[in-house]
Write a structure and sequence with these properties.
The protein has helices spanning about 20-30, 45-55, 75-85, 105-125, 135-145, 160-170, 225-235, 240-245, 250-254; strands spanning about 5, 30-35, 60, 90-100, 125-130, 150-155, 175, 200. Helices cover about 35% and strands about 15% of the residues. The chain is an alpha/beta fold. The two termini are about 20 Å apart. It contains 9 helices and 8 strands. Strands 4-5-6-7-8 form a 5-stranded parallel sheet. Strands 1-2-3 form a 3-stranded parallel sheet. Helix 2 (about 45-55) links the parallel strand 2 and strand 3 (about 60). Bound molecules: zinc ion (ZN). The site of zinc ion has 5 residues, from loops. Zinc ion binds near residues 9 and 94.
Length: about 250
Amino acid sequence: MALTDTHTHIFLEEFDEDREKVIERALQAGVERFFLPNIDLETIERLHRTADAYPDICFPMMGLHPTSVGSDWQRDLDHIRKLFDQRKYIAVGEIGIDLYWDKTFRTEQIAAFETQLRWSLELDLPVAIHTRNAFPEVFESISKIGATALKGIFHSFGGTREELETALAFPNFCLGINGTVTFKNARFAEYLSIAPIERIVLETDAPYLAPAPNRGKRNEPSFLPLVAQKVAEIYGLDKADVGILTNCFTQRFF
Ligand SMILES: [Zn+2]
């Protein structure tokens, strides 16, 4: 079964001790491709280093994460934008709006998000969107910049039924499902199957959000089959079919 981990931060220092082994374990578990979303200026060098070390399987994205949007956000974006002219990225990410921890930079977060959405149109790249306590704002920005022209992933989806329906009303978007779907309190697991399976992609968000029974541990891509298993149960499908069907979206847009 060939799986793609569409959102994994294996370039972070949490994996400095054993990155090679982590990737080996993932390959053995059937995870064959790794999409690496950037976070901020401090993570760029590590991101590039990891992508360069595994060029056939690790594919970097570039962008500014919403929780890293601060008073210097415009300077940070200028720096990041230039990088798109210097090397190849598979997507603009991760970008978005996060009003869970801190609303101080709400206006700036929205402005940075919309700027990066515009880049994705200009560069013809998909986006990886992080949303926390901010679906109304995120939907509004997408509608404003290009509801049908934009394409990408609502990463770590865990929204309400209504949010799921709104998300899928954007024709070129899919839902990134990770270990949270295996958690006992995952309400969205009850109605996830409203989404066509072709509009689901799998991710770990490693080192965060390890799926059950590894919840609380450092997450790693070799745990992705646990997410695939749960999605297979929800859809009443074979795990192998889930592997194939959840690759449809990435094959089309990435
Ligand atoms: Zn992430």
